[in-house]
Design a protein that fits this description.
The chain has 345 residues and is an alpha+beta fold. The chain has two domains: 162 residues, no CATH class; 118 residues, ph1033 like fold (Roll), CATH 3.10.590. Helices cover 34% and strands 21% of the residues. The strands form five sheets. The protein has a five-stranded mixed β-sheet. Strands 3-4-5 form a three-stranded parallel β-sheet. A three-stranded antiparallel β-sheet has the order 7-12-11. Helix 5 packs antiparallel against helix 6. It starts with 11 loop residues before the first helix and ends in a 6-residue tail after the last helix.
């Protein structure tokens, strides 16, 4: 029988952990695996494998379905409260589990940086993430880019999307998320980057949800572009034509003027986005003094164990502005700066 969706445990950490597990319990295994892969930075770690005529056996069956893993979760509600003694006890108990090949202890806390106890323990089986990392993993699992048709990723159902949205709202209501303004929204931008350089805005599906951010960055061609504009405002949904914009009485005057200038450029260029419904985010122009220009693009160097490139962004992700301003050469360096920990693939 499934656990209650949002636990009524009186103790905060038990309530949080039980609520996360209750949501996971109601998701498809493929979607849970995808979220855990993102949290643990192990995109190729399959928890359940399907083999046709597996080799290396005394007899060869037609097929084999196999799973041998144990993932433990230690949740902390407070900051700076992780103790190495407790983690060592968990690892000792984890070692006592028979017939387990993949062992992981996920330490989930609201800390901004990896707790010292985890660093000192220096055990590859122990992985720390904060609740904002969990939200990012959920966002990545829910996002669809232009490759979704041929992707092997699980496409979440509407029910799964609703469950995960409710989980994020629950974490936020518990005060576990820090929606910092001084962060950069990084978007997949094969089409968005040339659009920005042409019209100075970002357009996407109506009512798409983003965290509050001060800047936007564009990931395309395996790189984060060096041009980092300031986010100046947004409209959740608007039909991009002069007639519709003028009929919108709910818009602030500066937003209305910006939209009219935008749709004017789209119409003059014969842009196919003209006349359609979009969310619009206004950005500082590439020439504006407030736009950040790094000395170089940030190259994505993340690869899987098989040597295949791992996309840094599939839909969107967030990094601290300070990490971008440090102008790292690679995305691995960027993630290390962002979290105060080393990321491996």
């Amino acid at each position: 029988m499934a656990n209650p969706l949002f636990s009524t445990y009186s103790q905060g950490e038990n309530r949080i952990t039980a609520s996360i597990l209750a949501v996971f319990e109601r998701l498809s295994f493929a979607l849970v695996e995808q979220i855990l892969q993102a949290l643990l930075q192990e995109p190729e770690t399959q928890l359940l494998t399907f083999d046709n005529q597996p080799a290396g056996l005394t007899t060869v069956p037609d097929a084999r379905i196999r799973a041998s893993f144990s993932y433990w979760i230690e949740t902390k509600r407070g900051r700076g409260v992780v103790k190495a003694k407790q983690l060592r006890g968990h690892l000792k108990a984890l070692d006592a589990e028979p017939f387990v090949e993949k062992q992981r202890l996920l330490v989930l806390t609201p800390d901004a940086k990896e707790p010292g106890a985890v660093v000192r323990l220096n055990d590859q089986r122990v992985v720390w993430a904060n609740f904002q990392d969990l939200v990012t993993a959920i966002e990545q699992a829910l996002s669809l880019d232009e490759t979704w048709v041929i992707s092997e990723r699980h496409i979440p159902t509407e029910r799964e999307r609703d469950l995960l949205r409710e989980l994020v709202r629950f974490l936020n209501s518990e005060g576990l998320l820090e929606l910092a303004q001084e962060q950069v929204l990084v978007v997949a931008a094969r089409l968005a980057l040339p659009m920005y350089t042409t019209v100075g805005a970002y357009m996407c599906q109506p009512n798409r949800s983003f965290r509050p951010s001060s800047h936007m960055a564009f990931y395309a061609g395996g790189r984060i572009d060096r041009c980092i504009p300031v986010i100046q405002g947004s409209v959740d949904e608007v039909t991009l034509s002069e007639e519709h914009v003028r009929l919108r009485t709910d818009l602030a005057e500066d937003i209305r003027e910006g939209l009219l200038a935008l749709v004017g450029r789209l119409r003059q260029e014969g842009n196919p986005n003209y006349g359609h419904l979009y969310k619009v985010i206004f950005l500082s122009s590439p020439e504006a003094p407030e736009t950040i220009h790094l000395a170089h693009d940030i190259r994505n160097d993340r690869v899987s164990q098989s040597g295949k490139a791992i996309a840094f962004v599939q839909g969107q992700r967030y990094v601290p502005l300070a990490s971008i301003l440090a102008a790292p050469e690679t995305t691995t360096e960027l993630l290390s700066l962002a979290s105060g920990r080393s990321h491996s693939t």
